Known about the structure:
Elements: E1 8-11, E2 17-23, E3 28-33, E4 38-42, E5 46-50, H1 69-72, H2 85-88, E6 97-99, E7 111-118, E8 129-136, E9 140-148, E10 154-162, E11 166-173, E12 183-191, E13 202-207, E14 220-222, E15 227-236, H3 254-257, E16 273-275, E17 278-282, H4 285-288, H5 297-317, E18 322-326, H6 333-342, E19 348-352, H7 355-358, E20 362-367
Parallel strand pairs: 17-18
Antiparallel strand pairs: 1-2, 1-5, 2-3, 3-4, 6-11, 7-8, 7-15, 8-11, 9-10, 9-12, 12-13, 14-15, 16-17, 18-20, 19-20
Amino acid sequence: MELKVGDKVRFLNEKGGGIVTRILSNNMVNVAIEEGFDLPVLASDLIKIEPAGMAGRFFDRHMNLEVPAASAANQDVAQPANSSRFDQNDESDPERVSPLYRQSGVANPEGLFIIYIPQDQKILITGKVDIYLINNTRNDVLYSFLLREQTETYSGVDYDVIPPFSKIILETIDRDDIEGWSEGIVQALFHREESGEVLAPLHASFKVKPVRFYKESNYQDFRLVGQKALVVLLGDIAGQMIIEGEEALKGVDPAVKQKVSAIAPPAFIDVHKIGFREAEVDLHISELKEQYAEMSNSEILRYQLDYFSRMLDSAISNNYYKVVFIHGIGNGTLKSAIIAALADYDNVEFRTAPFAKYGNGAVEIIIHRNS
Length: 371
């Protein structure tokens, strides 16, 4: 067990506990106890009872001990060269968290997002990129952020708590590092002191083709931050409702139903299944959301494209052969955006869906398995 300055601990073989104030050696630490004394204790005789950092308040054991001033002055203990930022600082940096822009009368999807914001807002495809996790909900969100490594393992790079309607910066990266931050998993728990609804934990994988970062058209005005950003929707809040039994699913729109589970959740694309390894997805906004009257055209398009990407990714992951996406006729904006997005996918081909059934309002995508 690794201990750090600031960790709350209790004694293994006797009553009481305290706070680690100094690392004396690889197996010995100083512990400040409630009476105000520092005691040298073997690390093997201690149990850590609270994780350091902002997330620790969810696991509070009500040990309100303060580090004595004399001990606090001795906290400059050498840290291992490969320590993460959590090893070096046991409190969240308040500058990482900032409120979202919430304008009255402006509807924004309520949920969690990853966004990539170019620091240069004039030339979007060059320069450094700020990566944020967005919490546009009424809940505190306790999250874990993992990135997929080239070795096909996952590395936990960040965990913390985001207050309601806030954002937290994960990292600022150079363009050369984008590929390493384009695929991973976010896990989250939702917490409110009082609530009439219970939300299921979120487990969302994300993957952004690196080529997307070099197309200016992929960056959209994101009102919650007031800047252009590449936006990835991890999950909207309606989809995290815990609903038990098939009876409760009646009347639930597909955008919600595809994320609702009883015991073992089905694949997202299964909601739209029409045959063996075949699906049909209607992308008309009226089919995806009940409340959309206050959404702008750009917000509707982003929601439709997010849903398109999620369904296609799910179809690929679950060995579907064919998916028809109904985009409608309109002015062709959604169809053009879908075709542009398909350029980022390998092993798929597309064509106009059968005219007799869909007219000119749908695209048929054939998925080829990797050989």
